[in-house]
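Homework help board

Subject: predicted structure for assignment chain

Our instructor gave us this sequence and asked us to write out the predicted structure in token form, then describe one feature. I got the tokens but I'm not sure how to describe them. Can anyone check?
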Amino acid sequence: MKRALSAIAGLFAIPLLAVTTPAQAQDFPNKPITIVVPLAAGSGMDALVRLYADKLQQSLGKPVVVENKPGASLMLAAAQVAAAPADGYTLLVSTSSAMAINLVLFKKVNYDAVKDFAPVSFYVKSPFILVVNPDLKAKTVPELIKLAKESATPLSYSSPGAGVAQHLSMEYMKQRFGLTIAHVPYRSTPQSITDIVAGHVQLGFAEAGASLPLIREGKLRALAVSSSTRLASLPDVPTFAEAASTPDFEAVSWHMLFAPAATPKPVLDKLHAEMSKIMTDPEMKAKAAAIGLLPIDPPSIPDTVTYLASEREKWGSLVRKLELEGSQ
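My token output:
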């Protein structure tokens, strides 16, 4: 009799398990959600996250808390969320540095970017602006390429450090056009840009937020943006693809929202749908553009996974070509 009852109970257990995951999505969220940001409060990334966190809080009906966890080249935040419960209540905002470049650049990374995370929403690209000192003769990208090839003394460019996205973007440009331009690494973005203004180095790929005021003041000249579409804040500055007649040229960072990999699919789908509503709103797009970011309509989760794989291949192979693998 006991065996018969156990068998009957087992039959009912299977459909109960089958409805558990959808039920999680129906009940989600039933407590506060935390979004971990790998940069300090006040950064452009932080400002945008706080904007959409407020919108998520309104639509989901539960508090959405933003926690800043800067440090270790964005990797402290990633390691924290990788170890968090996979229930949708702890999320991570990250970039190409932590999710593509650092995997090859660093000897030790305390998380597996592929196995430990599932993308929730890919909502903005973070393009760079190719800027030069105003005294440099080149006023267009073709003129800069010509000058770099013909200069008796190699031109020099700055970046906030070896292996960061700005450094790799310039190396990507150099390889595409066979250029010799000397790299001068700095410890921070402000230092690297200030020395272009001062003429200590001639050029660099700079973050929009940090360089836009200097461009508007005439202290830097903008030749191109590294994204495949123009920036609303610099509508007259061409994309690099336009300026150099290279349709496939794009060298950007990006912001994505991630969850721990084992987060139930219905929860991921719910979060993705909410983020898509928020980030396609014209007002939110305008606010993202105002801080130098390039808002996009979030692609599907499978398409985002494909994009991530292509970015890891693109930047990982470049780090290896530059012989920087495991250099940090």
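Reply (TA_rk): Your tokens look well-formed. For the description, you could write something like this. Residues 2-27 form the longest helix (26 residues). That's the kind of observation they're looking for.
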